[in-house]
Amino acid sequence: MLNQFSRTQLVFGKDAMDILAASRVAVFGIGGVGGYTVEALARSGIGKLDLIDDDKVCLTNINRQIFATRKTVGKYKVDVAEERIHEINPDCEVRTYKTFYMPDTKDEFDFTEYDYIVDAIDTVKGKLELVMNAKEANTPIISSMGAGNKVNAAAFEVADIYQTSVCPLARVMRYECRKRGIKKLKVVYSKEMPIRPVEDMAISCRQHCICPPGTARKCTHRRDIPGSTAFVPSVAGLIVAGEVIKDLINFDRGNR
Description:
alpha/beta; 7-stranded mixed beta sheet; 8 helices; 7 strands; 34% helix; 13% strand; globular
């Protein structure tokens, strides 16, 4: 029967669509990369999505985050994402967690119930905790490396963490994964050298934060507030989603 996923079914087949509809995917981090991952997963027919992010939409997110608009500024990202998912697929089961994922919040999640985990958060400590918990639960995971301060959307690659180069975040993750005995980790990363962001206090969150009072601010704690574009994080997020979909259905173009 014709439905919103019919064109996808023409590519993958009905059996694959049934697998996607029965799959539960957790996306940690609903920002520039994670937001587009969620969007593509919802439009691909994933039947159960867990969204984890404690942040609210900021005016400065609008340049790159798919759930960020003038209308959604000040709202929790996971709430905005849930509403949009249900506009795409009313049958999708969505669970939201207004949680900043770190070692002290890991017990809120049962990693064995996920069919796939997406790491789209930007703290090394949180990323490593996610990877360790996914490996312990024997649940597939894919991690996004750095997408900020870059302008070449064509430079992204899918690789094992130990095959990466150039990316500063990937370098740190390689070192930390090796220390922890993690033998492999699928990542999306870019070989493009990051650009040093301009220090312009006239447009800096440090001087002109417009978030509501009491909002926890993580961006202003950084040495440099990263620059970003509309077209780099989005590409990384879509690549991540594509890998999740293909892995879940064990897609092999040669044996289609």
